[in-house]
Amino acid sequence: MPMRQCLIALMTMMVAGSALAADALYAGPVRVGGAARVNYQWRDWDDTYEGGELTMDTVRLNLDLDTNNVIGSLEYRYYNGGVVFTEGLQDFDWSDGYSMLHHGWLGYRFSDQYQVQLGVHQVPFGIQPYASHNWFFQMPYYVGLEDDYDTGIKSIYQNGPWNFKLAYYIADEGHWTGNSEDSARYSYDLVNEDFNGNQEKHQGNARLTYTMEHGSNATTEIGASLQAGKIEVDVDDDDGDRYAGCLHLNGDYGRWNLQLEAIRYEYSLENANGYTMGPSTYDSGSYVMMGAYDAPYLIASKGQIYCAGLAYTLPIAWDMIDSLTFYDDYSILVKDDGAFEDSEQNVLGCMIASGRWFTYVDVASGRNQPWLGGNWDNGLASGAGTTENEWQTRFNVNVGFYF
């Protein structure tokens, strides 16, 4: 989208924000909300836009229900920019846009301690709602292990400092509208593109946390998560299995927040030849294909992920700014295959809160990270194609109005 159009869109958001800021909007018992975001980025590996690129990023609609113990939530998103495939993964062009259901579920609150949700909802795994402070998330997001959404049933039980979530998912959240075969979705899943036939099925999750209080202004949550499921292979009857486990710590200490995660994951296919795309010099069982945002890529089928994030929130007594949150989030994917290069990312930045406006200013650096200059096809798999395995940097500003 040209810069002029983005500026017009941003001014429209400001006018709408002034009109909607006073009161929430309701349609009967349903609260109506949403967001619109504009994004600027500059990439040190791309000379196409020497002055950077400004685009209309996202428009979303939210509906939330809470009446007579019946609860529910729905969010649908449109993103500016999709993918048109011409020669598989190797040759694609960005096109007009794509959209997807972020989540949509109904539930019942049996008591203050217990509720059940049915539909497309967040998978209980790791730190929630996010294992990150920045706009880019952490490395687990890009392999489907942070802020993931699937279709199933989830129970949530809270008893004092204990919280237990148990879930079963019959399938992922599905493909919506876009140019890819199966990747127009918000969270990363195994995808069934025309050059491979794998899908996530029959997944179970369990997540247990315990929160310790330290005086009146500090808490530490420690937790463990387990995930197991099937891989449905369309090209034959040899289905596979997938497993993941996570230990985490999420600590709030006054204005400071500390997040730590350690994850182990495995995707095991009985018939590795189910893949017809990928680096021919590597065993096809050492990588799997995942997709989101209307574009698939490959990831290592087995590995460990380590994450550490630290944030400090500074209240601001200004009319225009409520608070500044400074953060640094680091994560690394250590791949089992010794021939693969590991993937890393670090995001240093600040979130500016001003009423219903939130702005993320990030300096995001990565090595073998597709969204941060790494080879798109294989960055999270072999790392092949990345220039000398170097770190690359993206400066990003995302401005959003939420209502």
TrEMBL record:
Protein name: Phosphate-selective porin
Signal peptide: 1-21
Source species, domain of life: Bacteria
InterPro entries in UniProt: Porin_dom_sf
Upper taxonomic lineage: Bacteria, Pseudomonadati, Kiritimatiellota, Kiritimatiellia, Kiritimatiellales
Biological source species: Kiritimatiella glycovorans
Keyword Signal recorded: yes
Assigned keywords, A-Z: Signal
